[in-house]
Amino acid sequence: MILWKRVALMQLSIFGALYIASVAGFVLIADGITQRFVDMARGPYLSTAVFAQLGLLPAYGLLAVVATVLTVPLIRSETKLLPKVVLLDLGLLLLALGPALRGGPGLVDFVARRLPAFDLYALYRWHVLDALTAGLVLVVVFAAASVVRSVKGRVGTFAVSSVLVLGALHRPSPQRATPLNKPNVLIIATDSWRFDRVGVHGAKHADITPNVDAFAKRATDFTNLHVATASTLESWVTFFSGQLPSTHGIRSMYPSREEAQAVDQLASTLPRILKTAGYDTFVSSDWVGNCFDLVDLGFTKRRVAPVQNFEALLREATVQAHPLVPLFFGSVPGKLGELLVPGRASLASLVRPGALVDQLFVDVDASVAAQKPFFGMLFLSPTHLPYNSRSPFNAKYGDPAYSGPHRLRVEVNAHELITTGFSPTLPPEAIAHVQDLYDDAVSDFDDSVGQVLRELDARGLDSNTVIIITTDHGEDLYDPGSTLGHGTNFFGGDQSTHIPFFLRLPGQSAASTVSSLTRTVDLAPTLLSVLNLPVPASMEGVDLAPVLRGERNEPDLISFAETCYLFFPKAQAMSGLTEAERAEVVELSGAADTLEVDPEFRHNLVLRPAYREAVINAKDRMVRTTRWKLIEIPGKTRPIRRLYDVLADPQQLHDLAGTGLAVEGQLVELLRAPDCRARHP
After folding, report:
1. Strands in 87-182 per DSSP E
2. CA of 556: how far to CAs of 220, 449, 559, 608, 679, in Å?
3. Residue 37's pLDDT band (cuts 50, 70, 90)
């Protein structure tokens, strides 16, 4: 017993010292944070920062307890006890890297990006992590057997402990679902997915999306679908409300409390309507899904990351300053994991896509058990900057010999993003590598698509579920006139607004195509019609269900879009303009000046009231038909326009504005008084 007490005190001292060192590291971290927000963290939000640090103490305490339990049975004498404890702790840390890095591969990626000279992925290829995991299991079994034997004196405790460990690893097979009269609906989505990054759409890498391609063989492919704003929050609100941004009122990713509450009170969002119709409604997502925490679109269960308000940003920075905590507890499921790693949901490197899929099917299985139809959504992040895909996907397409900038992911510095935006002058080989990183991320998402479809099939749900595979918007990848990101302008083609959208109806056995121009504002009324539910008059989109049933020809619609909120000065997003036009652009300050924290709105970042109207008025706007696309950029004395014949000029390199074409005036009139039901002029 004396040995136990001495080791326990040593472990508490060791992990206490590590805790203090990490707190000191947090205090010193200021890189990438604007001075105004640093002052806030040290001023009115000091107590939040302090409690975030204190919130990690239970994790360190548990580490000390676990280390004590595992090391005491391995100590044979009490001589030179402290060196033995330290060496055993280092050995346990090494062994623990096995399950920690196997369970959360994002951690390997995180470290590999910071130590590019080392080939950490050899840990996978040479099965080092498997060996370390096996070693840790043996230590745990031995320690458990020793503790039980010392307490109860039983001889067979080693075997019992082994059975318990193996039982914890066993996962029961899912139950087959009983067919229901109402079809289920499941949306599988990733953030920032380009239309041209799909195998069946002629992607550069033919093997980029094998699971999506297989799904497309029995689905309807909407090949000309466009979003109203290439920004996550605005796009999903448009999708689920069936209303344009000018109607639902969400015009930036930083809405005011009043704007968010207006959406919260919308009765005619797709999840709310389906809930009223008897559906379970739920969404599973990582940090890109925090928009569903910011506004309430009607999902009953929202298993998503918390909105990145100022308090969440402080907690995220805190977790990053304590690397041992996410390493050991980042993959612990449920409320225990949230208790030990507060703020972990905001960290992409700690949330595995597989865990999100498992989380989704917890709700699916609950609906099946209750014999209720479900409306579920899985929303993943790999295709969003910084293209944080898992191994082995993150090395699928890039040149292994590449050693330039952004080698393992796009390195985004918050301060540079706010002040200058993304560099427009990367060398061609760096741009090509960034594009390969993006394609790696698309393959990562496709793997999750396959996992979801297999889980559905295992439950017998495939034949009675409306399945959608899509995204919220596209992505710029140094297309002509653009850099990185999305929604900052409309140059270089339709890469930000044109999205993949695949829809499979129950019983569909062959591929079909809707090739005319359609919009995300049309999707909610279409789904309601497919489910034989009435379409509310408040929805502005067009019901496309008759087209799917072959009862009506494809409509000839017009698409409207506007740019999103800019973190950086607008001139940085205007590389497609001449110098004279750049001087004419209405300029706004970046995020450092236009954002503030609203304590009355859960401490969320919001647009400062003085800038709200200016931000909306400074948006570029676009109207698009099947053939024509008009861009209008607000100017100080006159609007700046671009007109493209998108059929003859898909990359939109040849401006026809001002050449006397009658269609330009017609499109300008539509832009002045947009009507989402308008036909081709």
Report:
1. none
2. 18, 32, 10, 40, 6
3. low
Amino acid at 459: R
Structure token pair of residue 607 = 């647009």
CA 408/CA 116 separation, integer angstroms: 8
3-state class of 658 per DSSP?
coil
Beta bridge partners of 466: 185
Q: β-strand 484-485 against 280-285: which pairing, if any?
A: unpaired
* Cβ 75 vs Cβ 93: under 8 Å: no
Query: What ranges do the domains of the chain cover?
Result: 2-169, 562-672
- For 152-160, the CB contacts below 8 A with 24+ separation are none
Sign of CA dihedral 414, 416, 422, 425: negative
**Residue bearing tokens 């109402």:** 182
User: From CA 352, how far away is CA 256, in angstroms rounded?
Assistant: 31
Name 643's bridge partners.
630
Coil/strand/helix, residue 387: coil
Do 462 and 474 touch, CB atoms closer than 8 A? no
609: which 2 tokens? Answer: 């009231």
Residue indicated by tokens 């989505």? 189
Mean pLDDT confidence for 319-333: 75
Residues facing 188 on adjacent strands: 378, 469
Query: What is the arithmetic mean of pLDDT over 68-89?
Result: 88
pLDDT digits (tens, 9 = 90+) for 189-201: 999 999 999 999 9
Q: How many CB atoms lie within 10 A of CB 413?
A: 11
- DSSP type of residue 679: B
For residue 191 the two structure tokens come to: 């953030």
The phi and psi torsions of 88 (rounded to 5 degrees) equal -65, -40
Residues 79 and 88: their CA atoms lie apart, in Å, by 14
Distance CA 338, CA 340 (A): 6
Place of tokens 């950086």: 568
> What value, to the nearest 5°, has the Cα angle with vertex 456 and ends 344 and 472?
55
Residue 637 CB contacts under 8 Å (≥ 6 apart), including other chains: 584
Cβ pair 563, 482 in contact under 8 A: no
φ and ψ at residue 469, rounded to 5 degrees? -120, 120
User: CA geometry: angle at 190 spanning 185 and 193, to 5°?
Assistant: 120
Q: Where are the beta strands (DSSP E) in 366-412?
A: 374-380
Tokens for 344, please give them: 């972990």
Cβ neighbours for 73, distance < 8 A, ≥ 6 positions apart? 142, 143, 146, 147
Q: Are 520 and 228 in contact (CB under 8 A)?
A: yes
For 180, half-sphere exposure in the C-beta direction (CA atoms, 13 angstrom radius) is 22
Query: Tokens 């067919």 label which residue?
Result: 179
Quickly count: other Cβ atoms within 10 Å of residue 237's Cβ.
24
Identify the three-state secondary structure at position 257.
helix
**Angle 217-220-224 (CA atoms, 0-180°, nearest 5)?**
120
**One-letter amino acid identity for 335?**
K
Region of residue 660 (left: phi > 0; alpha: psi -120 to 50; beta: else): left
Judge whether 55 and 22 are in contact, CB under 8 Å: no
Q: Nearest Cα to 439, choosing from 475, 479, 483?
A: 475
Q: Which of 166-170, 260-264, 313-317, 600-604 has the lowest mean pLDDT?
A: 166-170
**pTM for this one?**
0.85
Element (H, E) at 593: helix 591-594
Q: What is the largest CA-CA distance in the chain?
A: 95
Strand 621-624 relative to strand 559-562, pairing: antiparallel
